[in-house]
Sequence to fold (660 residues):
Amino acid sequence: MDDKTAKPDLSGQCGQVQCTESVTPTDLSFEELRNKFDTSATHALVRREIASKPSTHGSATRQVVSGKIFKKCKSATFQIDGATYTIEQGALTIVRRSSSRSKTESCSTPTDEQLDQLDLETEHLPAVDTPDACDKAALRLRYLLRQLNRGEISAETLQKNLQYAAKVLEAVYIDETKDRRVAEQPRAQQATLHMRRLRTPCWARCSVEKSNDAKRLADEDDELSEVQPDAVPPEVREWLASTFTRQLATAKRKSDEKPKFRSVAHAIRAGIFVDRIYRRVTSTALMQFPQDVVRVLKTLDEWSFDVFTLHEAANGQPVKYLGYELLNRYGMIHKFKVPPTILENFLGRIEEGYCRFHNPYHNNLHAADVAQTVHYMLCQTGLMNWLSDLEIFATLVAAVVHDYEHTGTTNNFHVMSGSDTALLYNDRAVLENHHISAAFRLMREEEYNILQNLSRDEFREFRTLVIDMVLATDMSFHFQQLKNMRSLLSLAEPTIDKSKATSLVLHCCDISHPAKRWDLHHRWTMSLLDEFFLQGDKERDLGLPFSPLCDRNNTLVAESQIGFIEFIVEPSMGVCADMLECILGPLHSGNKSGTNAATEPTIDENSGAESVNKFKIRKPWITCLSDNKKIWKEQATKDAEARANQEQEENIEVQPPPEE
Fold:
């Protein structure tokens, strides 16, 4: 293969290769192709480029010295016929694809006839990072300009289409500038800065595919139309992974098997073809979402998410749909190769476990609510950028299973009544130990094992994280947990363990309903008191003393909630916010050029000026806590007056009649 077949384009970061299609006179074996790819001419070109720009090719320099150019890069980017592909850790990901049309055609101004046929509805537009989004946005902008000149456009239609076009431009900007930003940052920052982008929701992808299926398939398949299935040997993906990433080959070829390719471009095309088939099969297998559920899940990123509405829309299965959506949005299904049917089975069994004892509060609604609140903490504060994929996976699963098979009674009830569960776990974190144990026992069964494709080390780390997080939801550890975190944050340079951080986040989300909107909080409070009163009835029947708040005849609801907010929830959310700002502050100080919707400027109390140096997260719970506490105080005053009037009436009734 001559130099014209494949030349490294080193204008960007390490591992970026520009491939142009060319056909060699004779077919090459797989090993010959690989050897020719690492030619001395290629190495010489790389050395010249690195000598001219040594600051941007530190990683590449080490690879050239070892004589293994592009062998151990974390990622590689290929451009084929105007399409851009990225291989990261062995997986092929399409970063951005331009249209398959020629530049002249794509840049030409649309005709009046084309504009007249345009439908400005925004319901079924492709996702902003899909191949034809740019074309759609450009065409709509042209049409809007024409309609503005004619005065024939409504404000609502204009606003929706401009918003869509702006999102498309933002997505393109991110794709085009990401590599340059990474290359310009110091190496120390590259290890910590990793701004995640959540995947397209299952329900959004399904709706887009249904409305744009024919055109999308035509656009995406143009550049691969010549690749036939019999030209895709199984070794292609292994070669791509072992050559351009740190992932080692999982199997060795027999010496007599020598697949042949006419060029590197064809080899890469073959790999992409296989990957696309796999993605289409898995996307087709993804769970379908009812339209009512889709409507509710569109508000998933809000702090006061209405899980009760989701429960009704999901026909009593909020964990199934919300858990599935979160694991997809964070890329866990794809990253850890979780079979969609296995995940659906697992979430179904978890949901059944939450409904086993028909608890008013500790049920599948509570599990879904906590999981959504954890999602808010991960996504809206930026915590997901600090955690690894496995840590996010463990955090989401821990949130889903943290009260699995809850009995509707407290740990103290189990200990005082001498239940089998208390005997099994020696009176220590009785319920929390059971939640963990039962969940992992479930995942040992093949049809529910969502961890089946984790390595041994990944499984051990995952299990340790989940155990730590769920055990931390035991309220008997509450004050010690806050004390330890406060002590850690008081240090000059605190180093926060990720397990402790995620444990505190899950604990705060578990008790967060007083920090939600009043209508949600009040409904949760009534459900929890119902559960407490049912336990009190059992304690009375067993001759046990009433646990706090469990005597239905002597519980002051408003006063109890005021105390819970002031002494438990407010301090917990305050410490959690301080911890998040301590963790995420250094990340954002090193990425000042970026923006984060979860941050807000701080006000210097002395000067009144805005301080741009101190990172702060948004805290929507502060307003909710204040409003809810105010309402409870008003209710407490009314209750006190009602009790005083009742006592006065009772005293009048028991007074003896005056003597004649």
Remarks:
- The mean pLDDT is 76.
- The beta strands are 6-8, 16-19, 28-29, 75-80, 83-88, 91-97, 260-261, 602-603, 610-611.
